[in-house]
Amino acid sequence: MLRGSCAAVQLREVPFLTQVAIRATPGRDGTLAEVLGLDLPSRVGHVSGGADGRGQAVLWLSPDEFLAVGPDEADTGVSPEAYAAGLAHALGSEPGQVVDVSANRTTLELSGARARSVLEKSCELDLHPRVFPVGAAVATLLGSTGVILWHTGEETWRVMPRASFTTHVVRWLLDGMREYR
User: Based on the number of CB atoms within 10 Å of its own CB, is 163 exposed (0-12), middle (13-18) or buried (19 or more)?
Assistant: First the structure.
């Protein structure tokens, strides 16, 4: 498991999360909410459910794009494929798509008093809590790499790059952490 830390900021991998990409028309998603066990977020950039990164959560990433994130199969007894199939069935004949993307992204957790400062070195978004509160999530760039950035706690962030870019993102974050040793 990946880890890096210093007194003011820590980096670790959160392995094996279930991740299911959902394309659906907002407002026509009642059966999806039943299968998810929670309502979809109220607007783009918001998270419903376990906004703190614990338990099941749904991130609204773009006008018709959601990402359901939850514990791994060992914790739930439900495979990501079966979970995605249940959501696809719930979508029914509505326009949309459901795909298991659990192996597509790595989930990194950056935490500590200087976590936001490390991210601000590489991200053009305003990450101040008034603008980007706990429970917010967006698709953005970190350096030059596409990631999903999810604010899960006052001093905790999830950074979700595509698996093939993980080494680059980890090195980038570790370099940003250097001054806080």
Answer: exposed
**Beta partners for residue 22, in sequence order:** 66, 98
More confident residue, 1 or 89: 89
* Nearest CA among 138, 129, 143, 132 for reference residue 176: 143
Q: For residues 117 and 163, is the Cβ–Cβ distance under 8 A?
A: no
Cβ 60 vs Cβ 66: under 8 Å: yes
**Predicted pLDDT at 29:** 64
Domain spanning 18-100, CATH architecture = 2-Layer Sandwich (3.30)
Sheet holding 65-70, edge to edge: 47-49, 57-62, 65-70, 18-24, 96-100
